[in-house]
Amino acid sequence: MLTARKLNTFTLFKLPSAYFTGVRVIEINAHKCQVGVRHRWINQNPFGSLYFAVQAMAAELSTGALVISHIQDSGKNISMLVARNESTFTKKAKGKIIFECTDGDLAKQSIDEAVSTGEGKTFWMESVGRDQAGDVVATFRFEWTVKLKKG
């Protein structure tokens, strides 16, 4: 089972830029994943808020962690890759921002289809970032591709 602690250790070794800018998985289960990041000197932009790329790392991790979790649960050798992404920024990101993706069921269904058909599958997942007041600061969408590896 994939846990927040295992994912945070993973980021230290495999995604160091995310780790050192403060991106951390808070919670993960089969249905949702929450990833937090606090605005600090190391991850700021010149306008005094959280740099957009740091927000993108947190948002992508909230979707990708769900994909990784369901791939592990399948027991199959499956490749995953982001094909496209879209983002909308609605408010300056200051303080602690939590990105939440609730598309775990979609990820599981898409991976199950890729396994049963042997064909690659693409699907969009959304992550919404909220500040401590609950206001939406950014919304990211990622198009994931999954494919059963041969052999």
Give the amount of beta strand, in percent. Answer: 25-35%
**CATH H-level superfamily:** Hotdog Thioesterase
Domains, number? 1
Structural class: alpha+beta
Indicate the low-confidence ranges by residue numbers.
none
Apparent shape? elongated
Q: Which fold name fills CATH's third level, the topology?
A: Thiol Ester Dehydrase, Chain A
Order of helices and strands: HHEEHEEHEE
Q: How confident is the prediction overall: mean pLDDT?
A: 97
Annotation keywords:
34% strand, single chain, alpha+beta, 4 helices, Thiol Ester Dehydrase, Chain A, elongated, six-stranded antiparallel sheet, 151 residues
Could you characterize the architecture of this molecule?
- 35% of the residues lie in helices and 34% in strands.
- A 6-stranded antiparallel beta sheet has the order 1-2-4-5-6-3.
- It has one domain: Thiol Ester Dehydrase, Chain A (Roll).
- The model has no long low-confidence stretch (mean pLDDT 97).
- The protein has 4 helices and 6 strands; from the N terminus they run H-H-E-E-H-E-E-H-E-E.
- The protein has 151 residues and is α+β, with helices and mostly antiparallel strands.
- Helix 3 packs across helix 4.
